[in-house]
Amino acid sequence: MEIQLTNVPDQMGVRPNWCDLPSELWRKIGKSLRNRIDLLRFRSVCNSWRSSIPPSLPNSPSFPLQLPHPINPFTVVFLIQSTFYRIEPPYQPSSSSPKGWLIKVEGESNPSHSHPLRLLNPLSDRQFSNPLSSSPRILNLLDYRVLELYKSYCFQQFGFPVKKVVFFPTSCWSDGEDSVACCIYLEGKLALFKRGDKKWTLVDDENYYYDDVIVYKGQLYVTDRWGTISWVDISSLKLIQYSPPLCGVGHKKHLVELCGNLYVIDRYYDSEPRRLNYEAAVVDFKVYRLDEEWGTWVDVKDLEDRVFILGDSCSFSVSANDFAGYEGNCIFFTDMFDVGKYNLGDGSIKTFELDPCSSKLFWPPPSWLRM
Question: Among 173, 196, 172, which Cα is nearest to 181's?
């Protein structure tokens, strides 16, 4: 749900006064919001709206979050939260609204913590820097039209052998007592950590080849290297098979949700990669959609206007129509030290460093974004 309370004039040129809404609607609207930026916008309308709901639940988790090391439980690591946004310029009646820009912001949950806010490349997780200025830049998201797209998580430790981390529930109203973290580490071990636990619990100690994990419809789902999706029963710590094996012959499987459906993206390397550092180069992708009604896999040849984002700590989809310079039916991904774009139509691959036009998708920012 996106709330854009920008006092845009209606057809009669009259600016609406949002404070005149019936008071019984304030709390009902506020409780329907599910992310932090919408909650901030709601509470910034006026004093009455701000006092109608709290900023969040008192015991909701804040990040960085201290967790034990999954391999060495006597070592403490910090789980860092990042948020992907589609950011657009404010309303301008004299011109058509340009398309949005994709940004990734790390470390915004707990302003009192020493971990600073960082603006990252959405795919490579590298921090953007301005070589022409050493002064700090300020990005006020309340100055723009902003939509939260996705949250990702990683551990604040260099060389930490974790392939993927998810955390749920992610709603701004979520109760911290019910929070669960799930990670895939080393060659593909799957582990869970519930609030109050002293250490991570290994799930399915007979299979060490899990590739990806996702929160889908409020539940945890994982896929192994053969493309079999399983549902993780949090209470029993057991896996329940949810799909037939895909039997894809690629080297790494990604789980992505698109329009309410589960997709597996099979990544192919030019040689068998070493499981921990993936030194091989990407040469191809195959896309499959799970038909949940019939329990079968559908080979997808055309994503139309959709784009898959496969970053170091994320996997999600966006519409190319929402972003300037993006091309539909493509997969954007990390490949060793580069960022690549795969066209599902013709099978071509381009790296951003070798394609100046593609690199501008993330940096420098458009002229309307003041930093």
Answer: 196
- Measured in degrees and rounded to the nearest 5, phi and psi for residue 191 equal -140, 150
**Rounded CA gap, 35 and 309, in Å?**
20
**Residue 27's pLDDT band (boundaries 50, 70, 90)?**
confident
Q: What is the pTM of this model?
A: 0.84
Amino acid occupying residue 228: T
Give the angle 31-35-37 at the CA atoms, nearest 5°. Answer: 110
Beta bridge mates, 279:
none
Instruction: Give bridge partners of residue 66 from the DSSP assignment.
Output: 78
**How many other C-beta atoms can be found within 10 angstroms of the C-beta atom of residue 293?**
6
Tokens standing for residue 78? 């910090």
The phi, psi pair for 339, rounded to 5°, reads -115, 130
Q: Which tokens belong to 79?
A: 């789980």
Q: Can you state the angle between helices 36-43 and 23-31, rounded to 10 degrees?
A: 160
Helix, coil or strand: residue 42: helix
- Backbone φ, ψ for residue 140 (5° rounding): -95, 105
**What does pLDDT average to over the chain?**
81
